[in-house]
Amino acid sequence: MKICGLQKTTLLDYPEHIACTVFLGGCNLRCPFCHNADLVVGKVDGIYTKEDILKYLRKRVGVLDGVCVTGGEPLIYEDTLEFLGELKSMGFLVKLDTNGFFPDRLEKALKSGNVDYVAMDIKSSIDGYAAATGVASPDIDAVKRSIALLESSDIDHEYRTTVVRELHGEKEIAAIEALIGGAKKYFLQGFIDSGKVLGGTFTAHPKEKMHELLAVARKYVPDAQLRGIE
Length: 230
What we know:
This protein is α/β, with parallel strands linked by helices and about 230 residues long.
């Protein structure tokens, strides 16, 4: 497990909780619009040991509500599951971010009782997954299985799509229903160009267009929301 970053306090990453965020390096995808390119492709060295993180958290017991574990993709590492258990044993709420391509490990995490909230990225419609992930033949069956696991669990969860003008329009948002129709929580997030995207030139939809796409999403997920859009 390669720990590449620590945000010591966040009011945004874990809904309704004060948390910190641990960033794990490495990912199985190469989403061209990814704003954490260096983290994803391994150009950022692991700068923390697990004990560094646990030492910090021991001092924050009673101050922080929870810990968010994100990436990259946290579930590329088998020992992430052990790490989640250690966080939980300290009394923290644990939020896991995932792209859904590791359903076996997600299932173990859900069954362990060591995860309180899961945020799963939905990259695009089924037909749009290759372009959105930078992978020629993405394992959509793995994504579908992860969704099924979340929908059959008692663990609170959300789905989210980072919306890019060049990749996502009404057609793609409507077709996402084939993956998550009936979900309770779905967020459309505005694309932000960090200046370090993996490849290509990408732009955000204007606010008005994002509201139009939200209306499309709400046909399938009535409580869908925008995130990061003023």
